[in-house]
Input
Amino acid sequence: MKQVGDYFFDQWLDENMIRSLPSGEFWDSEEEETSKEWYILDGNFEKMENYIRSRRLVEQLDDCIAYLRQHGNELSGIGVDLGAGNLWAEPHLLKNVGVEKIYAIEFSRHRLLKLGPAVLQHYGVRPDQVVLVVGQFEDIRLDDASVDFIFMSAAFHHAACPTRLLTEMKRVLRQGGTVILIGEDYQTRAQMLKRHILRYLASRLPMALQLRLFKRQVVSKSLFCGWQGLKIEDPVVGDRMYYPHEYREMFSRGGFRHKMFRSGSDACAFVLSRLAGE
Output
């Protein structure tokens, strides 16, 4: 186990392995990070907090925890934060007094090893409460039935293979454990159609204007592409979109029942628990 500042970290992936992952090169680019809301090495934590608030991420997490509490299931024990980013969620998860330790798994090394420790230190998270792990969330190198809860923020829809991810979740989760997914898109066909048209129009702008407005080229499918074609999948950042019924089907096939929480018109969160006999 290595150490960065006061915090310990483990390395499941080396640089070449990270760069070979889908969208690994984009997310492991520190240069890309400096313009984003969660870049806090300039000391501007308020910018990050305002962004989290605008996305209602803490509100979604609180809804999920309240639902668990209503059903006699406090968030406690050993947890895993998959796709942990800059670790903004760890202070919120650790406010639950029963939570002992969190494995924060992230393949973006600068987020995990530079931004992450700064966030943890700023919010007073003790070194014994978090283990930083350079890894990917579809290959969780922990023992079977070794964790009590799994958390993901705006990350599930980045899974290249959600079936494999759900299988890994079920493998490492103890009986009676729970999964919390927040920051997922809730898109009806009408909403998808609107976004598709706007993206199509943006992709027709001159390249110089696209780069100035969006920082990169906008990729779009044909204007007439059918209902499945409306789903915007960005291969650069690894974004994928699912209709509500597709989430339900994935969770059921993966051996989980779920409770969905709406947050505004275009976001949702889920609490997953293992189906009986799974």
